[in-house]
Amino acid sequence: MESGGTTGPLLYAVVAAVLGMLQFGFNTGVINAPKQFIENFIRDQYEVAPDLIFGVIVSIFAVGGMIGCPLASWIADKRGRKFALLANAVFGVIGGLLMGFSKAGSSVGMLIAGRFFIGINCGFATTASPTYVSEIAPLRLRGAFGTVNQLAVAFGLVGGQILGIDVILGSDNGWPYLLGLAVLLSAIQCLMLLFIPESPRYLLLVQSDEEKAREVLSKLRGTGDIDEEINGMHAEDRAAKEEEKFTIGDLFRIKALRTPLIIGVVLHLSQQLGGINAVLYYSSTIFENAGLTVEDARLATIGVGSILFIMALVSIPLMDRLGRRTLQLWGLGGMAVSSVLMTAAFFTYKDNFTMSIFAVIFTLLYVAFFGVGPSSIPWIILSELFGQGARSAAVSVGAAVNWFANFIVGLVFIPLTNVLNNLVFLPFTILLIFFYVFVYFKLPETKNRTVEEVTAEFKK
Length: 460
Fold this sequence. Notes:
20 helices
């Protein structure tokens, strides 16, 4: 087999790593369907508005993510990629156990703590999994393997939504088992991770163990013909050491770095403040408000995850054919139009089943346009706008901003719905229009351009 192909050990290692991203998707989508049962549980414990506590349960997940992201990056550099993935799985087990036993322990605090720990787990995954996969993937398959992370998220989302329907685990007795399934995912990942190798790149460039790196790389590639790849790693490392290193503070001080940082941060904000997580966290509530029965709303929610999964597949070939800027504009523009149509449908659904159906269709269209570009482009754009010396700092800022915006949307959506009712998507629509205009005037196309060409544009 030629160097650069897929082998059994390579595929096994990729699957073991991306189970963390599947966990991320699962825990994003799983909280949606059992909302009313969790609120009943809260009502039994406290004499407060249960929707406010539920908002905390939803949004504390993002606080954990904000902590998990930089922690994973630090551990991956200090102790290795494999150790970071194992630590990630341990956080998942802790979070899953707390959520799974929260009802038996009559403790809302356990549920909140469990969502916090599972948030750390998912923050870890969004850093550790893509890093490991990109470092073990053959160069010519790195792009395709990178998209496996997005597919795992979408697959986990659909899985969580399907398991949340009332005939499976979406019931008053079933919801602790539904949330507790995170234990099973993390336990499986933990066992699988014991048999994967350390990243050969980490072994070679951080631990300076070329013999071990060659041994691992030969096993992953299924061939001993790996000299070219080893030499390529050395060359890339020499180039990185010669390039000036920049801190997070430098990104704000130096104009040539500040401009692309602002662009990347705004794209991350567009992903969250466009309202997508309001749909992912609360689609059952949205569909019920649009006139569907509880059962039909949960079935429609499965459509949300399914559309995201399909669009993740569709966007893979389009990314390099049409370019990042084009897809981002199509996505944001389509989301804005769909958001207006959703709002119109919400105002006309009463005693009109046809408009209830249109409300669902427009919501699914909104999700589909999100999948076109805004779902994945913010996560890759910063690595294409910055050179090696500033890339790590820029990506970490982008991830922190993304998780923080995620937290804000999760926390305010229910109170916002109580205030604005059918106009709840109006603020998101206004923001989507702003993001569209910003991208149109500020985002350069990075398709078929080297990082050097892109960064030179910002230095002018």
